[in-house]
Design brief:
This protein is of the alpha+beta class. It folds into 2 domains: 1-36; 39-236, Alpha-Beta Complex (endopeptidase fold (from Nostoc punctiforme)), CATH 3.90.1720. Helix content is 31%, strand content 13%. Mean pLDDT is 85; it is low at 220-230. Helix 2 (43-58) packs across helix 3 (85-95). It is globular, with a radius of gyration of 21 Å. The chain contains 6 helices and 6 strands, in the order H-H-H-H-H-E-E-E-E-E-E-H. The protein has a 6-stranded antiparallel β-sheet with strand order 1-6-2-3-4-5.
Protein backbone atom coordinates (compact mmCIF):
# COMPACT_ATOMS: atom_id res chain seq x y z
CA UNK A 1 0.00 0.00 0.00
CA UNK A 2 2.79 2.39 0.92
CA UNK A 3 4.57 1.63 -2.37
CA UNK A 4 1.38 2.39 -4.30
CA UNK A 5 0.96 5.68 -2.44
CA UNK A 6 4.58 6.62 -3.18
CA UNK A 7 4.06 5.86 -6.87
CA UNK A 8 0.87 7.93 -6.89
CA UNK A 9 2.62 10.84 -5.16
CA UNK A 10 5.51 10.70 -7.63
CA UNK A 11 3.11 10.67 -10.58
CA UNK A 12 1.22 13.66 -9.17
CA UNK A 13 4.47 15.53 -8.57
CA UNK A 14 5.58 14.95 -12.17
CA UNK A 15 2.20 16.04 -13.48
CA UNK A 16 2.27 19.16 -11.33
CA UNK A 17 5.80 19.97 -12.49
CA UNK A 18 4.82 19.48 -16.13
CA UNK A 19 1.73 21.64 -15.69
CA UNK A 20 3.85 24.37 -14.11
CA UNK A 21 6.27 24.12 -17.04
CA UNK A 22 3.42 24.46 -19.56
CA UNK A 23 1.97 27.46 -17.74
CA UNK A 24 5.38 29.13 -17.70
CA UNK A 25 5.80 28.53 -21.44
CA UNK A 26 2.34 29.92 -22.15
CA UNK A 27 3.17 33.03 -20.11
CA UNK A 28 6.44 33.48 -22.00
CA UNK A 29 4.68 33.14 -25.36
CA UNK A 30 2.06 35.66 -24.25
CA UNK A 31 4.77 38.16 -23.34
CA UNK A 32 6.52 37.64 -26.70
CA UNK A 33 3.23 38.19 -28.51
CA UNK A 34 2.54 41.34 -26.48
CA UNK A 35 5.95 42.80 -27.35
CA UNK A 36 5.29 42.27 -31.07
CA UNK A 37 1.68 43.48 -31.30
CA UNK A 38 1.15 47.18 -32.09
CA UNK A 39 -1.29 49.16 -29.98
CA UNK A 40 -3.44 51.78 -31.69
CA UNK A 41 -2.76 55.04 -29.86
CA UNK A 42 -3.51 58.63 -30.78
CA UNK A 43 -0.64 61.08 -31.01
CA UNK A 44 -1.85 62.70 -27.80
CA UNK A 45 -1.72 59.34 -26.03
CA UNK A 46 1.80 58.69 -27.31
CA UNK A 47 2.93 62.16 -26.23
CA UNK A 48 1.54 61.50 -22.76
CA UNK A 49 3.34 58.14 -22.58
CA UNK A 50 6.57 59.81 -23.69
CA UNK A 51 6.25 62.34 -20.86
CA UNK A 52 5.57 59.54 -18.37
CA UNK A 53 8.72 57.73 -19.51
CA UNK A 54 10.83 60.86 -19.02
CA UNK A 55 9.29 61.62 -15.62
CA UNK A 56 9.79 58.05 -14.43
CA UNK A 57 13.45 58.01 -15.52
CA UNK A 58 14.08 61.45 -14.00
CA UNK A 59 12.73 60.12 -10.72
CA UNK A 60 15.81 57.88 -10.46
CA UNK A 61 18.27 60.78 -10.38
CA UNK A 62 20.70 60.18 -7.52
CA UNK A 63 20.52 56.39 -7.83
CA UNK A 64 24.02 54.86 -7.81
CA UNK A 65 25.40 53.10 -10.85
CA UNK A 66 26.98 50.52 -8.52
CA UNK A 67 26.51 50.34 -4.75
CA UNK A 68 29.82 48.57 -4.16
CA UNK A 69 31.73 51.56 -5.53
CA UNK A 70 30.74 53.64 -2.49
CA UNK A 71 32.11 53.53 1.08
CA UNK A 72 30.62 50.86 3.31
CA UNK A 73 27.98 52.35 5.56
CA UNK A 74 27.33 55.30 3.28
CA UNK A 75 23.87 56.15 1.98
CA UNK A 76 24.73 55.13 -1.58
CA UNK A 77 26.27 51.82 -0.48
CA UNK A 78 22.99 50.95 1.24
CA UNK A 79 20.76 52.35 -1.50
CA UNK A 80 17.84 50.02 -2.30
CA UNK A 81 18.58 50.09 -6.02
CA UNK A 82 21.49 50.42 -8.43
CA UNK A 83 21.12 51.29 -12.12
CA UNK A 84 23.67 51.21 -14.90
CA UNK A 85 22.97 52.95 -18.22
CA UNK A 86 20.66 50.31 -19.69
CA UNK A 87 19.26 49.48 -16.26
CA UNK A 88 17.84 52.99 -15.95
CA UNK A 89 15.90 52.61 -19.19
CA UNK A 90 14.79 49.07 -18.39
CA UNK A 91 13.57 50.12 -14.95
CA UNK A 92 11.52 53.00 -16.36
CA UNK A 93 9.95 50.63 -18.89
CA UNK A 94 9.22 48.03 -16.21
CA UNK A 95 7.59 50.67 -14.02
CA UNK A 96 5.35 51.60 -16.96
CA UNK A 97 4.81 48.14 -18.45
CA UNK A 98 1.04 48.39 -18.08
CA UNK A 99 1.03 51.76 -19.80
CA UNK A 100 3.41 50.70 -22.60
CA UNK A 101 1.69 47.35 -23.03
CA UNK A 102 4.79 45.18 -22.88
CA UNK A 103 7.53 43.98 -20.55
CA UNK A 104 11.08 44.35 -21.91
CA UNK A 105 13.58 41.51 -21.80
CA UNK A 106 16.37 41.86 -19.19
CA UNK A 107 19.17 42.45 -21.70
CA UNK A 108 21.45 45.45 -22.04
CA UNK A 109 21.75 48.43 -24.37
CA UNK A 110 22.50 46.25 -27.43
CA UNK A 111 19.08 44.61 -27.03
CA UNK A 112 17.41 47.98 -26.51
CA UNK A 113 19.09 49.26 -29.68
CA UNK A 114 17.84 46.25 -31.64
CA UNK A 115 14.24 47.04 -30.67
CA UNK A 116 14.34 50.64 -31.95
CA UNK A 117 14.66 50.67 -35.76
CA UNK A 118 13.93 54.41 -36.23
CA UNK A 119 17.48 55.77 -36.19
CA UNK A 120 19.10 59.06 -37.15
CA UNK A 121 22.56 60.59 -37.40
CA UNK A 122 21.82 63.82 -35.52
CA UNK A 123 19.92 64.91 -32.42
CA UNK A 124 18.05 67.48 -34.53
CA UNK A 125 15.70 64.71 -35.70
CA UNK A 126 14.79 63.22 -32.31
CA UNK A 127 12.56 64.34 -29.46
CA UNK A 128 12.82 64.53 -25.69
CA UNK A 129 12.73 60.99 -24.33
CA UNK A 130 14.38 59.38 -27.34
CA UNK A 131 17.60 57.44 -26.81
CA UNK A 132 21.22 58.03 -27.76
CA UNK A 133 23.31 54.89 -28.24
CA UNK A 134 27.10 54.95 -28.17
CA UNK A 135 28.94 52.62 -30.51
CA UNK A 136 32.53 52.18 -29.35
CA UNK A 137 35.56 49.95 -29.10
CA UNK A 138 37.17 49.07 -25.77
CA UNK A 139 40.73 50.22 -25.22
CA UNK A 140 41.40 46.88 -23.54
CA UNK A 141 41.33 44.44 -26.46
CA UNK A 142 40.95 41.51 -24.05
CA UNK A 143 37.45 42.66 -23.14
CA UNK A 144 34.58 40.95 -24.87
CA UNK A 145 33.03 43.41 -27.35
CA UNK A 146 29.39 44.33 -26.89
CA UNK A 147 26.97 43.24 -29.59
CA UNK A 148 26.98 45.87 -32.34
CA UNK A 149 29.81 47.41 -30.27
CA UNK A 150 27.07 49.22 -28.37
CA UNK A 151 28.79 50.34 -25.16
CA UNK A 152 26.46 52.94 -23.64
CA UNK A 153 23.01 54.55 -23.82
CA UNK A 154 21.42 57.74 -22.49
CA UNK A 155 18.03 59.49 -22.66
CA UNK A 156 17.87 62.66 -24.72
CA UNK A 157 16.29 65.68 -23.02
CA UNK A 158 17.33 68.60 -25.22
CA UNK A 159 15.80 72.04 -24.90
CA UNK A 160 16.21 75.35 -26.72
CA UNK A 161 18.96 76.60 -24.41
CA UNK A 162 20.54 73.17 -23.96
CA UNK A 163 20.03 71.18 -27.19
CA UNK A 164 22.47 68.43 -26.12
CA UNK A 165 21.13 67.88 -22.59
CA UNK A 166 20.57 64.27 -21.57
CA UNK A 167 19.89 61.92 -18.66
CA UNK A 168 21.87 58.82 -17.87
CA UNK A 169 23.91 56.61 -15.60
CA UNK A 170 27.28 57.43 -17.09
CA UNK A 171 30.03 56.66 -14.60
CA UNK A 172 30.49 53.61 -12.41
CA UNK A 173 31.38 55.57 -9.27
CA UNK A 174 28.65 58.16 -9.71
CA UNK A 175 24.85 58.31 -9.87
CA UNK A 176 22.04 58.78 -12.38
CA UNK A 177 22.32 62.42 -13.43
CA UNK A 178 21.30 65.07 -15.94
CA UNK A 179 24.19 66.18 -18.14
CA UNK A 180 24.51 69.38 -20.17
CA UNK A 181 25.68 67.38 -23.18
CA UNK A 182 25.60 63.82 -24.43
CA UNK A 183 29.17 64.34 -25.62
CA UNK A 184 31.87 63.06 -23.28
CA UNK A 185 35.17 61.22 -23.40
CA UNK A 186 35.29 57.75 -21.89
CA UNK A 187 38.39 56.27 -20.30
CA UNK A 188 37.17 52.75 -21.12
CA UNK A 189 36.15 52.91 -24.78
CA UNK A 190 36.74 54.96 -27.90
CA UNK A 191 33.60 56.37 -29.49
CA UNK A 192 33.00 55.32 -33.09
CA UNK A 193 29.48 56.57 -33.73
CA UNK A 194 26.40 57.99 -32.05
CA UNK A 195 23.00 56.54 -32.92
CA UNK A 196 19.98 58.75 -32.23
CA UNK A 197 16.94 56.49 -31.89
CA UNK A 198 13.26 57.35 -31.65
CA UNK A 199 11.21 55.50 -29.04
CA UNK A 200 8.10 55.78 -31.23
CA UNK A 201 8.25 52.01 -31.76
CA UNK A 202 7.89 51.49 -28.01
CA UNK A 203 5.13 54.11 -27.87
CA UNK A 204 3.29 52.01 -30.45
CA UNK A 205 3.46 49.10 -28.00
CA UNK A 206 6.16 47.16 -29.86
CA UNK A 207 9.42 46.02 -28.23
CA UNK A 208 10.77 43.31 -30.53
CA UNK A 209 14.27 42.93 -31.93
CA UNK A 210 14.66 43.66 -35.63
CA UNK A 211 18.15 42.15 -35.71
CA UNK A 212 18.36 38.85 -37.65
CA UNK A 213 21.59 37.82 -35.92
CA UNK A 214 20.80 38.20 -32.22
CA UNK A 215 17.78 36.13 -31.27
CA UNK A 216 17.02 37.91 -28.01
CA UNK A 217 13.47 36.62 -27.77
CA UNK A 218 14.54 32.98 -27.97
CA UNK A 219 17.77 33.25 -26.05
CA UNK A 220 18.57 31.94 -22.62
CA UNK A 221 21.64 32.88 -20.64
CA UNK A 222 24.50 30.71 -21.82
CA UNK A 223 25.68 29.07 -25.02
CA UNK A 224 23.20 27.21 -27.19
CA UNK A 225 25.00 24.23 -28.69
CA UNK A 226 24.68 24.04 -32.46
CA UNK A 227 23.08 27.47 -32.79
CA UNK A 228 23.96 29.51 -35.88
CA UNK A 229 23.30 32.67 -33.88
CA UNK A 230 25.77 34.48 -31.69
CA UNK A 231 25.20 33.17 -28.14
CA UNK A 232 24.02 35.38 -25.31
CA UNK A 233 25.53 35.35 -21.86
CA UNK A 234 25.34 37.04 -18.48
CA UNK A 235 27.38 39.96 -19.84
CA UNK A 236 24.45 40.78 -22.13
CA UNK A 237 22.30 41.54 -19.08
CA UNK A 238 24.32 44.54 -17.90
CA UNK A 239 25.89 47.56 -19.53
CA UNK A 240 29.50 46.66 -18.76
CA UNK A 241 31.56 45.83 -15.66
CA UNK A 242 33.52 49.06 -16.15
CA UNK A 243 31.29 51.20 -18.41
CA UNK A 244 32.24 54.80 -19.12
Amino acid sequence: MDAQEDTHDTTCSLQDAFQTFLEKKRAERAKIAARAKPIQRTQAEKDRLRRLFIEKAMGYCGTPYSRKEHPEGSELAAYPLQLDCCGLIRQALMDLKDEFGFEPLPYNQAYQFDTLPLRYDTHDLIREGDLIFYEGVYFNNKKRPQKHDMVHVEIYLGGEATPERCLGSRFRKQVVSVFDSYKFKSTVWELKKLHFCSIDTWLDGVCKSVCPLHQWERATVGFTRGSIFEPLGEEDLVADPEDA
